[in-house]
Recover the amino acids of this structure.
């Protein structure tokens, strides 16, 4: 695949060298077009060495090849990173003062902008209007990451991590002209992994959750343009880059983190395996096994119903209508009282969440596996939706459904 990689004049330009490496190692032919300002941060020699192609932003270099027309026409994908406020403005207003802006005007394939700038610049009405203009014309504009900026400030405006941009670019190409970022501008909180309830300093009550499905959901939401916050209980896999990670251990810690995170979230996805019970008392010392003592008796107490509490909190804050989408996960087994879906439908009614993603669990099913098969139930009563395959594929289906639910009820702000 032929890729044009435009590099804007921001300090985050140094990260783009890693993005270029990801493209070339995947076998793509990359032509880098650095703006003049960006060469103050990373010189053209770096781009030429890593890409194996000349790097220039002048329309007067190699005039016989008519690069200001050819590059845009031939590119299968154009990626702009970092997309500064200046570059977004020039692209939105159709300026053509250098090779990069000419190439954007000539583009006939997908275009992806990865913004990076100070928070106030990103949030300025002029920048937001430019972003809306570009999206309305079919370009994909990622949401910047949140975190530490160049100085002491923190906030939205960081360049997304290179692998996040790479994943979004590949998804854009796979989707071609139909690709959209359904969660652009949204904040999504996702819980993942299994909680652990301590018995003593050594032992705990836990479950078999690996966190793989929650991490896959975080990646899918990130690639859909969302700002993602991952509430990470015990996981067997590392969290993805480009998301905010809040570590938790117990159900009570998860409850505290979830209630705090929900305050500014458009979507809350509770995919973590939360312990229903916890020991009523936790020993300060290891519980010893001794022949001269009776077997210990462990009294359990119920943990709070975090999902139901989130729904009640949402409903009390917005009594006139839904302002937040809440998604639950249910790991179910059938029994003499009903099959998996019967139990899941009853749970959906009790919890009151908008969507419930149902797993049929058991020995060698779901937990720790790389594949999954789910049914998505909706409180609205719409037909159940099935999704199966790898956990990445299942996550894509869940995030796509969430995007549809959000955008069919309330337009993206």
């Amino acid at each position: 695949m032929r890729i044009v990689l435009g590099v804007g004049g921001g300090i985050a330009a140094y990260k783009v060298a890693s993005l270029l490496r990801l493209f070339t190692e995947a076998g793509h032919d990359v032509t880098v077009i650095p703006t003049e300002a960006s060469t103050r941060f990373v010189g053209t020699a770096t781009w030429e060495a890593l890409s194996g192609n000349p790097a220039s932003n002048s329309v007067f270099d190699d005039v016989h090849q008519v690069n200001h027309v050819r590059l845009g026409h031939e590119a299968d994908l154009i990626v702009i990173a970092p997309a500064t406020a200046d570059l977004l403005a020039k692209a939105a207003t159709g300026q053509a003062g250098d090779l990069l802006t000419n190439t954007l005007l000539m583009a006939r394939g997908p275009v992806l902008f990865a913004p990076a700038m100070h928070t106030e610049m990103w949030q300025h009405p002029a920048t937001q209007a430019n972003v809306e203009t570009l999206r309305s014309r079919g370009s994909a504009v990622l949401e910047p990451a949140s975190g530490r900026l160049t100085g002491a400030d923190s906030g939205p405006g960081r360049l997304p991590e290179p692998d996040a941009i790479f994943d979004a670019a590949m998804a854009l190409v796979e989707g071609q002209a139909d690709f959209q970022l359904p969660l652009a501008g949204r904040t999504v909180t996702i819980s993942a992994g299994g909680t652990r309830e301590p018995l003593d300093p050594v032992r705990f009550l836990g479950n078999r959750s690996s966190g793989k499905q929650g991490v896959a959901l975080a990646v899918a939401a990130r690639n859909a343009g969302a700002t993602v916050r991952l509430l990470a209980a015990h996981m067997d896999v590392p969290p993805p880059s480009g998301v905010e990670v809040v570590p938790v251990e117990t159900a009570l810690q998860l409850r505290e983190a979830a209630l705090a995170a929900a305050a500014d979230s458009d979507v809350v996805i509770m995919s973590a395996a939360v312990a229903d019970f916890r020991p009523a008392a936790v020993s300060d010392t290891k519980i010893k096994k001794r022949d001269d003592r009776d077997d210990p008796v462990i009294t359990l107490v119920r943990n709070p119903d975090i999902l139901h509490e989130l729904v009640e909190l949402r409903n009390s804050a917005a009594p006139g209508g839904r302002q937040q989408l809440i998604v639950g996960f249910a790991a179910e087994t059938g029994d003499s009282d009903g099959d998996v879906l019967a139990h899941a439908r009853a749970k959906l009614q009790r919890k009151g969440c908008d969507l419930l993603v149902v797993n049929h669990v058991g020995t060698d099913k779901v937990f720790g596996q790389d594949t999954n098969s789910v049914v998505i139930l909706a409180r609205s009563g719409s037909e159940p939706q099935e999704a199966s395959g790898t956990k990445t594929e299942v996550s894509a289906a869940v995030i796509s459904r969430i995007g549809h639910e959000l955008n069919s009820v309330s337009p993206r702000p």
User: Anything to note?
Assistant: The chain has two domains: 2-178, 187-409.
